[in-house]
């Protein structure tokens, strides 16, 4: 656990299509996490197969890749104390039917195959996913109180 821990959070195509981008970003911002990277990406099946390499062989894998390639996703990196674990708690259980109310999936989703968002499940995987989705690197910045926006 560290204040500079980073996690990869992705709003899936159904979350983008349903207009939940602002709501999901708002939850991470108001919780206190720092947004350090963000972009809209229409990923290729090949790229998504790398992201979900651990799931290759599962019966739902082809459908998962098709769903994830069906439209753009919002790729983000959030930084802050215990970002990986807390991010997963904020997303809720993978199957929305088991997600607690108050979590993103528990408030906005019903089906495991359309569960709106992704969050890294370990610090090690977060760093791998950040490299996969942001190969160009991430600009580090600090809030400078002296030039705060008026
Ligand atoms: P994610 O990677 O998207 O955050 O999800 P997760 O770690 O909570 O769950 P994981 O087991 O890695 O599954 C990845 C995504 O695959 C879809 N899925 N469909 N039985 C099914 O039809 C099924 N199981 C999983 C979900 O979209 C899940 O988020």
Automatic annotation (TrEMBL):
Organism annotation: Sphaerobolus stellatus (strain SS14)
HAMAP family xref list: NDP_kinase (MF_00451)
Gene Ontology molecular function: ATP binding; nucleoside diphosphate kinase activity
Keyword field: ATP-binding, Kinase, Nucleotide-binding, Transferase
Protein name stated in the entry: Nucleoside diphosphate kinase
Keyword set includes Nucleotide-binding: yes
GO process annotations (BP): CTP biosynthetic process; GTP biosynthetic process; UTP biosynthetic process
Active site: 118
């Amino acid at each position: 656990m560290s204040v500079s821990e980073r996690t990869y959070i992705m709003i899936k195509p159904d979350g983008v299509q349903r207009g939940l981008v602002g709501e999901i970003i708002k939850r991470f911002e108001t919780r206190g996490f720092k947004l350090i990277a963000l972009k809209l990406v229409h990923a290729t099946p090949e790229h998504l197969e790398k992201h979900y390499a651990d799931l290759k062989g599962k019966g739902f894998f082809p459908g998962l890749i098709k769903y994830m390639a069906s439209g753009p996703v919002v790729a983000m990196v959030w930084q802050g104390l215990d970002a990986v674990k807390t991010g997963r708690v904020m997303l809720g259980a993978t199957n929305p039917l088991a997600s607690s109310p108050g979590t993103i999936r528990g408030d906005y989703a019903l089906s495991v195959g359309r569960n709106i968002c992704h969050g890294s499940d370990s610090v090690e995987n977060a760093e791998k996913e950040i490299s996969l989705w942001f190969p160009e690197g991430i600009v580090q910045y600090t809030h400078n109180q002296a030039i705060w926006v008026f």
